[in-house]
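Example S7 (C-alpha cells).
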C-alpha cells in the first residue's frame, strides 16, 4: 500500500480565529481524515511584530472545541534554521538582491497583481547584496524569479498559470525588519513536514505559481493544491481579522460545537441546512464534488451568524 499522505492547516497567529478560519480548518481536516492522511497543525508565527502567544493558545482551543484534532503540531519560528539554509542556497545561486522600494513606489507603477495588490516591476534587480550577504542587508531582500511562465491547474480545476516574474514581480523573502516572508517559509515548511496536500482558501491561489517556482529552485517536492470557497463580509471583502470579523470566542459563547459545525457545513454546501452535526459525522460522505464552489456572504447580527 502507498504511504499515507499529509495535509495541514497553517494559520497565522496574528489575531483571533473567525468563521473563515474555522471553515478552512474544517475542510483541510475533512480532506486529510477522509483519505487516512496525517494532519499537521502549523502555527505560522514568524511575524514577531504582529503575533501574540495568546492567539496561538486560543486557536488550538478553538479547533479542539469544534472537534478537530491533529497528529502533529509545528511552530513555524522553530524552523528558522531551515529557512536560513534555503536563503543561503538562493544567495549561492545569485538570486537574492536588496530592494529599497516602498509600497508607494509599487503603487506609483499602477500595475495590479493577480492577488489585487500592486505588482512589483523588479526595478532593483542587479543591486548587489552587502559583503555579508542577506544577513547584513538593511533593506528588504527579494528573489529574482526566472523569466518564464508557469502552467498550473489546481486539483479543483482552478487555473493558476502565471508568469510570476511579470504578473506578481520578484517576491520579498526577508522584510526590512528582518521578518522572513510567507512565500519562503511556507514552501520550506511544507517540504520539511512531508506535506503532500495543501487545502486553503482561494484568496491565496495567486501565490501558488511563485511557490512552485521556489520549490523548483530549492529542489523541493511539490504538493497537490486545492483552493476552496471563502466566507465574505456583506461588502464583499473576505472575512478577516483586520476587518473586525466576529471572533471565535463570541461564536463559542453563542453556539454549541455541533451547532457551529452545522452552520459551517451548510455554508460549504455539505448539507442542505444548518442542522447540528460533528466533524466526524461529515467524514463518511465527504467528497470535494459536494463542496460549493461559490463564496458565501456571512453576517453576524450580534447574536447569530446569517448566511
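Recovered sequence:
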Amino acid at each position: 500500500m502507498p504511504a499515507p499522505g499529509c495535509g495541514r492547516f497553517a494559520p497565522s497567529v496574528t489575531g483571533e480565529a473567525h468563521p473563515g478560519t474555522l471553515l478552512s480548518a474544517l475542510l483541510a481536516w475533512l480532506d486529510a481524515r477522509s483519505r487516512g492522511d496525517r494532519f499537521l497543525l502549523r502555527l505560522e508565527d514568524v511575524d514577531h511584530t504582529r503575533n501574540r502567544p495568546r492567539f496561538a493558545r486560543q486557536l488550538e482551543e478553538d479547533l479542539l472545541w469544534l472537534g478537530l484534532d491533529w497528529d502533529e503540531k509545528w511552530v513555524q519560528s522553530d524552523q528558522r534554521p531551515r529557512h536560513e539554509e534555503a536563503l543561503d542556497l538562493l544567495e549561492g545561486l545569485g538570486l537574492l538582491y536588496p530592494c529599497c522600494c516602498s509600497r508607494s513606489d509599487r503603487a506609483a507603477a499602477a500595475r495590479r497583481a493577480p492577488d489585487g495588490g500592486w505588482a512589483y516591476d523588479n526595478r532593483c534587480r542587479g543591486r548587489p547584496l552587502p559583503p555579508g550577504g542577506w544577513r547584513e542587508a538593511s533593506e528588504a531582500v527579494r528573489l529574482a524569479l526566472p523569466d518564464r511562465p508557469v502552467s498550473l491547474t489546481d486539483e479543483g480545476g482552478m487555473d493558476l498559470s502565471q508568469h510570476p516574474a511579470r504578473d506578481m514581480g520578484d517576491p520579498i523573502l526577508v522584510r526590512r525588519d528582518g521578518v522572513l516572508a510567507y512565500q519562503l517559509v511556507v514552501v520550506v515548511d511544507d517540504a520539511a513536514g512531508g506535506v503532500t496536500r495543501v487545502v486553503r482558501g482561494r484568496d491565496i491561489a495567486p501565490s501558488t505559481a511563485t511557490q512552485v517556482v521556489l520549490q523548483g529552485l530549492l529542489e523541493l517536492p511539490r504538493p497537490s493544491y486545492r483552493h476552496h470557497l471563502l466566507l465574505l463580509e456583506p461588502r464583499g471583502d473576505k472575512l478577516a481579522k483586520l476587518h473586525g470579523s466576529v471572533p471565535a470566542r463570541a461564536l463559542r459563547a453563542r453556539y454549541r460545537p455541533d451547532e457551529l459545525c452545522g452552520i459551517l457545513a451548510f455554508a460549504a454546501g455539505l448539507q442542505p441546512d444548518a442542522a447540528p452535526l460533528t466533524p466526524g459525522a461529515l467524514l463518511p460522505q465527504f467528497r470535494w464534488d459536494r463542496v460549493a464552489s461559490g463564496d458565501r456572504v456571512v453576517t453576524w447580527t450580534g447574536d447569530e451568524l446569517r448566511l
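Notes on this example. The radius of gyration is 20 Å.
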